[in-house]
């Protein structure tokens, strides 16, 4: 499939097939499109892959996805690869599970202090890597890595 090369931007590769919409939600690409008029996003779905059989790819022209957002995406899809492109040159970024995550995900416990409007507390989680869980810093609520897309803050 032919899609023009990107000179500046980000390519998120090896997303499981038909999951690009979830990846796009985790990366908050809709917000990005509203903020940046000259950013374009190309989503390729069900592309043949030697490694995965089938995969999705997201190409973002003229925008570098924040490494922290790429790390959060790798909680959900551990096999993703991230390529940053600058003036046509590609550099790979290997996303890693961070020790803690601040601000980007909300706590699943509605009564948590980080969910109350009067207390402007930034949500904060520790990652339990072996169990594939996030643990809220304030209320100890647990959130499975796989459920992260439902709790990404807008
Ligand atoms: Zn909490």
Question: Explain this structure to me?
Answer:
With 154 residues, the protein is an alpha+beta fold. It is built from 4 helices and 9 strands; from the N terminus they run βααββαββββββα. Strand 4 and strand 5 form a beta hairpin. The model has no long low-confidence stretch (mean pLDDT 92).
In short:
18% of the residues lie in helices and 34% in strands. It has helices at residues 20-26, 29-35, 67-76, 148-151, and strands at residues 9-16, 40-49, 53-61, 81-86, 89-93, 100-102, 124-128, 133-136, 142-144.
Q: Count the E strands.
A: 9
Strand content: 25-35%
Taking the sheet with the most strands, its summary is: 5 strands, antiparallel
Low-confidence stretches: none
Sum up the structure in keywords.
alpha+beta, four-stranded antiparallel β-sheet, 4 helices, 18% helix, binds zinc ion
Give the topology, please:
Layout: E1 9-16, H1 20-26, H2 29-35, E2 40-49, E3 53-61, H3 67-76, E4 81-86, E5 89-93, E6 100-102, E7 124-128, E8 133-136, E9 142-144, H4 148-151
Antiparallel strand pairs: 1-3, 1-4, 2-3, 4-5, 6-7, 7-8, 8-9
């Amino acid at each position: 499939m032919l899609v023009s090369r990107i000179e500046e931007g980000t390519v998120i590769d090896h997303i499981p097939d038909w999951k690009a919409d979830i990846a796009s939600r985790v990366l908050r690409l809709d917000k990005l499109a509203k903020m940046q008029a000259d950013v374009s996003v190309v989503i390729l779905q069900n592309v043949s892959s030697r490694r995965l059989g089938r995969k999705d790819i997201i190409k973002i022209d003229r925008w570098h996805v924040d490494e922290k957002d790429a790390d959060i995406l790798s909680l959900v899809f551990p096999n993703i690869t991230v390529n940053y492109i600058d003036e046509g040159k590609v550099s790979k970024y290997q996303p890693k599970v961070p020790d803690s995550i601040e601000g980007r995900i909300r706590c699943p416990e509605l009564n948590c202090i980080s969910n109350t409007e009067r207390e402007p507390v930034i949500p904060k989680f520790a990652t339990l890597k072996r169990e594939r869980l996030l643990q809220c810093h304030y209320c100890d609520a647990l959130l499975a890595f796989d459920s992260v897309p439902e709790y990404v803050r807008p």
